[in-house]
Design goal:
One of its GO terms (cellular component) is cytosol. The protein is an alpha+beta fold. The chain has 16 helices and 20 strands. The strands form five sheets. Strands 6-10-11-20-19-18-15-14 form an eight-stranded mixed beta sheet, with helices on both faces. A five-stranded mixed β-barrel has the order 1-2-3-5-4. Strand 12 and strand 13 form a beta hairpin.
Amino acid sequence: MAENNQQQEKDLSELLKVRRAKLAELQENGKDPFQITKYDVTHHSKEIKEHFDELEGKSVSVAGRIMSKRVMGKASFCNVADKLGNIQSYVARDSIGEGSYKDFKKYDVGDIVGIKGEVFKTKTGEISIHASDVVLLSKSLQILPEKYHGLKDTDIRYRQRYTDLIMNDEVKETFIKRSQIISSIRRFLDKKGFMEVETPMLVANAGGAAARPFETHYNALDEDVKLRISLELYLKRLIVGGLERVYEIGRVFRNEGLDTRHNPEFTLMELYQAYTDYNGMMDLTEEMYRHVAQEVCGTTLIPYADAMIDLGKPFERISMTDAVKKYANVDFSEVATLEEARKLADEHNVHYEERHGKGDILALFFEEFVEDKLIQPTFVTDHPIEISPLTKKKPDNPELTERFELFIYGREMANAYSELNDPIDQRERFKAQEIALAAGDDEAQTTDEDFLNALEIGMPPTGGIGYGIDRLVMLLTNSPAIRDVLLFPTMKSIDK
């Protein structure tokens, strides 16, 4: 096996040497492709195929990467891939000239070329270009992997996304769809009167979520700062400032583990709307998800893994307490004390820590017994106050808050509140978070005095939503892992 690998490496090395020798020859003959600065492209492959009736017999210019090549004496075929697909070209010596044809025969798979010629259909019915001119625009000095063998290693695919995009059309389609999803969200919110804004990434106080931040040092100010973990607190300041409807789509950073659903840097969408509550946010979220699916996928029936997700019918709405009662047969509305909650946890093998309150234990029950059951879109409402430090209390039950999370296929997809706008209550919540931090919760928030000052200026009743763009893209592209929808996911460095 080792000998076989050594031989393969030797063969590869020889092939790479041949490519460099071809480049040197071109350069010696005054045909250095790297000196070419532009090429006038008139059409892409998909356009030619879709509009063949109009373009047949007409001259077009395309550019792209040679993906396959068949040389047959005085005539050859090559397949060229561009951003929209690929198209075949018929390259004949008599059409492009003897010298150009001699050069063409030396071109390699992976080379980038410009081809000018007439659109026609071969005897087998394939729409093609009859080349009148072929120009080498860039020389590929590496060997592309084999179509069906070289890109099965997901680690290589993620590390070399550029190669992955060349070899796998479905990967390219995923990222095209990702761009369309973000554009669709923007159009939806713009039409609703929301204003897109940008807020700081480097912050003194990383609040707005339960997560451990990345820390760095700002040399110019000689101050330690953090990378933001959320967009929330600055967007709320803008609500205080009277902007009423704001949103941001931006990167946030959380110093946590890597798995199929988590990457330490990811794209978050957060919006805030004055004069509404979490019920209004539920309606808006449902409408937004339905709109984006219909616009990007052409349907609200979305296949994901082994399920068919129906975004077209009304989303289920259930309180966390009722969900735990339904799936775990435990009714926390009848649990009066922390001792009772701990006893139930012990009986059901739910692990908790000394610092956890009754509400924390309710949330742990939910995670253990409910989350993975919520396949179809479900709004889970009325979270305990212990896990909702920025949310308004329910007037009829101050132990619970006006908050919801949207679950689809057992995954949290969105988080939303009736935002807490009482500065006195907010200060007390921050104090509770500080105590939790001191007790060992490294994801607890710290007091943000400037944010409290903003609340004291006065924030109107406000609803807010936050959701990860990456998880939405996973859903709408049927992607099993977050790395499949991130162009350049976080990877451990390869030791050199």
